[in-house]
Structures are given as structure tokens and as C-alpha cells.
UniProtKB/TrEMBL annotation:
InterPro entries: Bacteriocin_ass. Keywords: Membrane, Transmembrane, Transmembrane helix. The keyword Membrane applies. It comes from the Bacteria. This is Bacteriocin-associated integral membrane (Putative immunity) protein. The chain crosses the membrane at residues 225-245, 266-288, 308-327, 348-366, 580-599, 620-637, 649-670.
Length: 684
């Protein structure tokens, strides 16, 4: 059991660093993603969302005048621009900043190659970036910059004058975030700009000031880890104390104090636990953080106190052991035959409390990980199919013309109608309006990959349905289809099998869905962003779309969604594996301890019943009844948790079944290997 404690200590120590690393990394990325809020905290000023519109001036002239006004009035100005890169894979999130505050970006880790950028310069176009390039003068760093590759985002922080390179010259408006003590500058800025253009209008679009970014993840992770450690240590050590209770009594009678007994028995294991915790903590840190910078030093300052907290927990546990030995090693208990019964009762209470405590984090972790774990292999097979597939990343003005042009040689499959319907019903509890059966929209080109056959076994003839059709698998024949489109002819088909979502988003695939065959664009049914165009010449595709639409159309590579899913799947697998490992160790420790304590208490009685010919069920019925009672209490106690009834029932049923299986295994082992010891008058 002491070796098991070491495994638990290592797992907890690693998980604390791992989760803190991940959450801190996300927190740092969020600060960059919400740079407006991050700098607000450092400036100690209010942020105002300002909308500037104009008719007669050029875009360049207006933003330059705003920069001059900010310089004269010591304001901080930030403009934001989001664009996709040429490959349609990464989003460039560009910030353009004017500020006379040298400490504006102090909260961000930036590795500068030389001199820092002067954001009060209205002529320069230098920038920092989260990605390496020859043009940037410094790299923005978080704990793991690979996170930006996962979310396919590049964050760049430019000097204000770089707005000149955005390609927005045709715009007649400008959105800005301006930082000031109050909004008194709004009218003044408008008057300043109207000196050269009377059409300029400046308005304050701020509804409510954004709240600062706050996180309690460190406290939550630490609290859960320490609770698990306390329960495991107390369970194991109290078991050791009661098992050796009589030995301690004899040593007490020989004059050894309780604290010496506690020190002799537990000091070594407590000391080793502390050393293992520290070593695992530091090793985990150096494995995860392969660079020393401002961000990693901040993380180190966050995780070092974990070792102090753990030392405090071990001190409390040692004091508990000392007091427990002092109280339990009384002469009046020397001939007490029921001290194992007391231990069993304590273990049952701890088990009930611990399972209730673990229920919410376990179910939450499982639900978050399940979509990735279940769909990983399905999505993995899509890689070759979607590598050169591009989706529209916006709804163009001439969607109808674009759909008509591409529909015969491009993929169109829309799973979002069904997924949005399911999620909407879950949020509103309006299950009457839900689609009763899986449902997708698709065109002929997408359906060619599937062998669609009518009920008579003939291949489906698309030419017979120039205006579309509702293809209904035979398994739904004679069912209520009133929720599905009735404007097209219904055609019953053989069950068509699985359909994969090339957009790689939840829902990832559907089996035997009802299919709305779309042959022409419908403003009500067609979602043009699900039109997938395959090409190895991106620039030519962009040019073609711009000619069809009249203006530029943003596109995005399907690999964007694929890579994001695969990265999330790997992270989910690691996190769920760590959680599952900790939960199972805790659970199995409690279960095995309570079962063997029960068998040690009732071993003689069970052995005698065996001699008298009692069946195995009758010999052990009390153990199963106690197990049933414990899980009834767990189910009743879980009603205070924010979980659905079905989730609670499923959780309790699975763990109860698992414990029954463990009990059966332990009983068989006991009767085959240990019962003879009892019959000979020996101990387990």
C-alpha cells in the first residue's frame, strides 16, 4: 500500500503542473486574444469602443489624423483587423497600437531582437508576432507557442501606421478602442476631424465596460488534488494503524510514546513522499517548459508553493496519525474483537464521500473528451480527402450565383441544420421541435461517394429530380416525417450507411440520415459556407470567386478544422487519461481496502459457513447488501450536484457494477487462497 501512495503522489504532482501549465498557457493566449482587456488592466483607464464614419476623406487620412489627435491628447488607441492568410489556414489577428506608455505591454512576454518597438512613433510599421518571420522585430511568447498552431491563429502587434498596409482603403468607417479616464474626448475628436471633413461622425459604441480577465483554475486544481491526497493518505494510514493496533498497544505498555511510534512508522514514508512530490514537480516543469523566459518564470513561481502546501498536508496527516495512535492504543481495546469493524465503517464512509466528490469532475471530463475519443478514427481517415478542400468563410453577396457555378463539381454537405436543432432543443428543453431522425443537406457530387439505391435495388437516378428530393432510408418508412421539408418529392432508399462531415465539426458523421438533395440555391435551406471546393491553386480560386461575387471572398482550408480536431483529440486523450488514472487509483484503493477489511473481520464466520455448506451467495450476501446500501446513499447524496438524473444513474450503476465484479474476484481469491488459513486458526 505504501508503494501505491508513491504512485498517487507522482500522479497528483504531475497533474498539478500539467493542468496549471495548460490553463496558464490558455490564460496567456487569452490575454493576447483579448489584448484590449489586457492593456486596460495595466493602464488603469476605461476602454471606449469608438466608431468613426466619413464620406469625403480617404481611409488613410482619417486614421492618420486620429493618430495625431491621440499624440496631442496622450490617448491610447488600438485598432484590430482579422484576416485569413493566403493558404486559408491561419487567421492573422493584427493589432495596431498608438501609445506613449512605455509599459503598455509589460504583461506580455516578448523576446526582442534588439531595440523595443516605440508605439508612440506614427511613422513606423514594425511589429511583434507569435510566429517567427524575417520581418518582425520580436517574438511574442507564451508557455507553449504551439497552442497558436493548434487554433490556427497568428497574433501580430503593429505600430499604428501599419494600418496603411491593411488594404482597407475603400472603407468609409473605422472601429477603434480608445483608452481614457472618461468619454469627454468623443465630441472633441469629432470636432478635430471635422476641420478637414464635415461628413465625419464619431460615436461611442461602448455599452458596458468589459470586465477584466479572471481565472480561479489554480485554486480549483489545487483544492481537488489536496482533497484526493488527504483522503488517500488518511485511508491507507488509518488502515495500517488499525491492522497494527495491538503491536502499538504492546509498545505503549513497554513505555514507547505515541509520537515515537508514529514517527517510526510514518516519518520515512512522509519524507519520501515529499521528496518524490518535489522531484516530480520540478521534472514535470522542465519537461513542459523547454525555455526560460518571463512566462515560464511566472509558472515556476506558481507551482513552487504546491510543494509547501503538500508539506503542510503531510504535517497534518502525521499529526492525525499520532492522535489516532494515541486514542486507539488504549488497553480497553486489547481484547476488542471488532476493531476491524470500526475500520470497515470508516472506510465505507470515506468511500461514499469520495465517490460523490469525484462524480462531477469525472462525468464532466468524460463528456468533454468523449466526442474526440469516439470520432478520432473516423476523422483521421479524412485527411487525404480534405487536404486541398476549401470552404467559403463568409456568406457572399452573390451566394446563389456561386452555388450554381460550383454545384456540379464541388462537395456540398450540411450537417449544421441537424446539429443546431439538437443543441437548441437541449438548451431550451423543447424536444417537440427536434428532428426525430438524423438529417443532412447534400448535393449530387457529395453523394457520388455513396451507393444510393432505391428500394427496388436500382441505382438512384439524379436526373429524374432536377428540383431536388428528400431521400428517406427504408428504416424510417411509415414514420412521422412532418418535421422535414415537404416542398420536394420523397424518395425511399436503401439504408445508405455512414456520411462523414468534411467540415470536421460536431456532428462529425451520421449513420443512415434523411438526405435533402439540393440541386439549386435556397435562401432558407442552403448554407453556402458548407460548399467545399477542391483545388491545388488557391490564388486562382480566390480570383475566380472574386469575379463571381464582385468583391473578395474569404476562404478557409478544410485542414484548418481537421488539424484543430486532431490537436484537441490528443489533448483530450492525455487529460482524460490522467484524470482516469487518478480516479481509478483512488477508487480502487478505497474499494480493495474496504473489501479486505471486511474479509479480515468476517473471515472466521465465512470459513465456518463454508464448512456447514452455505452457498457462496449466502456466505457473502452481507457484503453485497452493504455495497448496495452504499451506492443508494451515493445516489441520494448526488442530488445536490449539478448533474442530470440520467448521468447520475449511469455513473452509480457503472461503479456499482465494477465494485461487484471486484468483490467477486476478491471472494474467489479469498476462498481459494486464504480460507484455509482461517480454518487452521491463522490470520490472513
Amino acid at each position: 500500500m505504501k508503494k501505491l501512495l508513491m504512485v498517487v503522489v507522482m500522479l497528483i504532482s504531475f497533474s498539478l503542473v500539467y493542468y496549471t501549465f495548460n490553463e496558464k498557457n490558455i490564460d496567456e493566449a487569452s490575454k493576447l486574444n483579448e489584448l484590449n482587456l489586457s492593456v486596460k488592466a495595466d493602464l488603469k483607464l476605461n476602454n471606449f469602443n469608438v466608431y468613426v464614419s466619413f464620406e469625403n476623406s480617404k481611409f488613410t487620412d482619417i486614421y492618420q489624423q486620429i493618430g495625431l489627435y491621440a499624440k496631442e491628447n496622450d490617448l491610447v488607441v488600438i485598432a484590430l483587423d482579422n484576416t485569413l492568410d493566403d493558404a486559408g489556414l491561419y487567421t492573422n489577428q493584427n493589432y495596431y497600437i498608438y501609445s506613449n506608455h512605455s509599459d503598455l505591454l509589460n504583461g506580455i512576454c516578448i523576446d526582442v531582437d534588439g531595440k523595443k518597438i516605440d508605439f508612440s512613433d506614427l511613422t513606423g510599421k514594425q511589429y511583434y508576432s507569435t510566429h517567427n518571420s524575417k520581418e518582425n522585430v520580436g517574438k511574442i511568447k507564451i508557455l507553449n507557442n504551439g497552442f497558436f498552431d493548434k487554433i490556427k491563429r497568428k497574433i501580430n502587434i503593429y505600430q499604428y501606421n501599419a494600418l496603411d498596409n491593411t488594404g482597407f482603403e475603400q472603407l468609409k468607417y473605422l472601429y477603434l478602442t480608445i483608452y481614457s479616464k472618461d468619454d469627454g474626448f468623443i465630441n472633441d475628436l469629432q470636432e478635430y476631424l471635422q476641420k478637414t471633413d464635415n461628413s465625419v461622425s464619431v460615436s461611442n459604441e461602448t455599452r458596458v465596460h468589459d470586465e477584466d480577465i479572471e481565472n480561479n483554475y489554480i485554486f480549483d486544481n489545487l483544492k481537488n488534488a489536496l482533497i484526493i491526497l488527504i483522503i488517500i493518505f488518511v485511508t491507507v494510514m488509518s488502515t495500517i494503524i488499525i491492522r497494527k493496533n495491538r503491536q502499538y498497544m504492546i509498545r505503549r505498555m513497554m513505555g514507547t510514546s505515541s509520537i515515537k511510534i508514529a514517527g517510526y512508522e510514518f516519518f520515512r514514508i512522509i519524507f519520501i513522499s515529499q521528496i518524490i512530490f518535489i522531484i516530480t514537480n520540478l521534472l514535470s516543469y522542465f519537461v513542459l517548459c523547454q525555455d526560460i523566459n518571463k512566462a515560464t518564470i511566472e509558472l515556476l513561481k506558481m507551482i513552487l508553493p504546491f510543494n509547501i502546501y503538500f508539506a503542510g498536508i503531510l504535517l497534518i496527516i502525521f499529526l492525525f496519525n499520532w492522535i489516532f495512535i494515541y486514542l486507539s492504543c488504549n488497553l480497553k481495546y486489547l481484547n476488542n474483537k471488532n476493531y476491524f469493524q470500526r475500520l470497515f465503517n470508516i472506510q465505507m464512509i470515506i468511500k461514499i464521500v469520495m465517490i460523490i466528490f469525484l462524480m462531477t469532475p469525472f462525468i464532466t471530463s468524460l463528456k468533454e473528451s468523449l466526442p474526440y475519443l469516439m470520432n478520432y478514427l473516423k476523422v483521421k481517415d479524412l485527411k487525404e480527402e480534405i487536404t486541398y478542400l476549401y470552404f467559403l468563410n463568409e456568406v457572399p453577396e452573390k451566394s446563389k450565383e456561386i452555388f450554381a457555378y460550383y454545384k456540379d463539381d464541388c462537395y456540398y454537405a450540411d450537417f449544421t441544420d441537424y446539429s443546431a436543432n439538437i443543441r437548441g432543443a437541449e438548451l431550451t428543453n423543447d424536444y417537440e421541435s427536434i428532428y426525430p431522425y438524423p438529417y443532412i443537406h447534400a448535393n449530387e457530387y457529395y453523394l457520388r461517394n455513396h451507393n444510393i439505391k432505391t428500394l427496388d435495388g436500382k441505382k438512384f437516378d439524379y436526373n429524374k429530380y432536377p428540383h431536388g428530393a428528400l431521400l428517406v432510408p427504408e428504416m424510417y418508412k411509415d414514420q412521422d416525417l412532418s418535421r422535414y421539408p415537404s416542398s420536394v418529392e420523397i424518395v425511399y432508399i436503401k439504408n445508405p450507411g455512414e456520411f462523414l462531415n468534411y467540415h470536421v465539426e460536431d456532428i462529425y458523421y451520421l449513420t443512415n440520415p434523411i438526405i435533402l438533395l439540393e440541386t439549386e440555391y435556397s435562401i432558407f435551406e442552403t448554407r453556402i459556407t458548407n460548399l467545399g471546393i477542391k483545388t491545388d491553386n488557391v490564388s486562382e480560386l480566390k480570383k475566380e470567386l472574386e469575379e463571381l461575387n464582385g468583391i473578395k471572398v474569404n476562404i478557409i482550408n478544410a485542414k484548418y478544422y481537421y488539424d484543430y480536431f486532431m490537436d484537441q483529440s490528443k489533448s483530450a486523450l492525455i487529460e482524460f487519461g490522467v484524470n482516469l488514472g487518478i480516479y481509478l487509483i483512488v477508487y480502487l484503493t478505497l474499494v480493495f481496502q474496504s473489501i479486505f477489511t471486511y474479509l479480515e473481520e468476517k473471515g472466521k464466520e465465512i470459513s465456518i459457513n463454508y464448512i456447514f455448506g452455505f452457498s457462496r451467495i449466502k456466505r457473502h450476501i452481507n457484503l453485497f447488501m452493504l455495497n448496495l446500501l452504499a451506492y443508494a446513499i451515493i445516489l441520494f447524496g448526488s442530488f445536490k450536484l449539478n448533474l442530470s438524473f440520467n448521468n447520475r444513474i449511469l455513473f452509480v450503476s457503472c461503479f456499482m457494477l465494477m465494485e461487484i465484479i471486484i468483490e467477486i474476484i476478491c471472494i474467489i481469491y479469498f476462498e481459494n487462497k486464504k480460507m484455509v488459513n482461517w480454518l487452521k486458526g491463522e490470520k490472513l
